[in-house]
């Protein structure tokens, strides 16, 4: 599981960097400042959770089942939260109206919050 988590974290990290660069350089002329700021929020949270997975992968005190749950929550959370933010921020330059998927953003955010709660619970319930 540790290897899989590190691979997922690396993928999330590299795509966050690529999307951040694309947003800063490739989208700058097409999006407003507010849209770019929104796009950057998606990038930032994706990177935070890539680092979070690296951290969790290296915690020897955490059970494998908790690692699996956290990984699943982070992957789904980033896909829904950051993914929907990317689409919503670039809505003005596409032919599809992504506003209809806006409801998934808070669901993704909730999954990310729950991943941190699972980490907390994993240590809270553990005897030292």
UniProtKB/TrEMBL annotation:
Subcellular location: Membrane
Highest taxon of the lineage: Bacteria
Keywords assigned: Membrane, Transmembrane, Transmembrane helix
Membrane is among the record's keywords: yes
Pfam families: DUF423 (PF04241)
Transmembrane segments: 47-63, 70-88, 100-124
Membrane topology note: Multi-pass membrane protein
Any one of the GO CC terms: plasma membrane
Location, primary (coarse class): membrane
Claim: Transmembrane is one of the keywords in the record: yes
Family the entry assigns: Belongs to the UPF0382 family.
Name under which the protein is recorded: DUF423 domain-containing protein
Source organism per UniProt: Flavobacterium agrisoli
Upper lineage: Bacteria, Pseudomonadati, Bacteroidota, Flavobacteriia, Flavobacteriales
């Amino acid at each position: 599981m540790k290897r899989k988590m590190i691979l997922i974290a690396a993928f999330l990290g590299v795509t966050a960097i690529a999307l951040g660069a694309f947003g800063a350089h490739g989208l700058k002329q097409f999006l407003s400042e507010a849209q770019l700021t929104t796009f950057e929020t998606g990038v930032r949270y994706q990177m935070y959770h890539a680092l979070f997975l690296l951290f969790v992968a290296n915690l020897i005190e955490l059970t494998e089942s908790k690692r699996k749950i956290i990984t699943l929550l982070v992957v789904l959370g980033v896909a829904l939260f950051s993914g929907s933010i990317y689409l919503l921020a670039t809505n003005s330059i596409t032919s599809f109206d992504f506003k209809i998927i806006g409801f998934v953003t808070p669901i993704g955010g909730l999954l990310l919050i729950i991943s941190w709660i699972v980490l907390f619970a994993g240590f809270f319930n553990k005897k030292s």
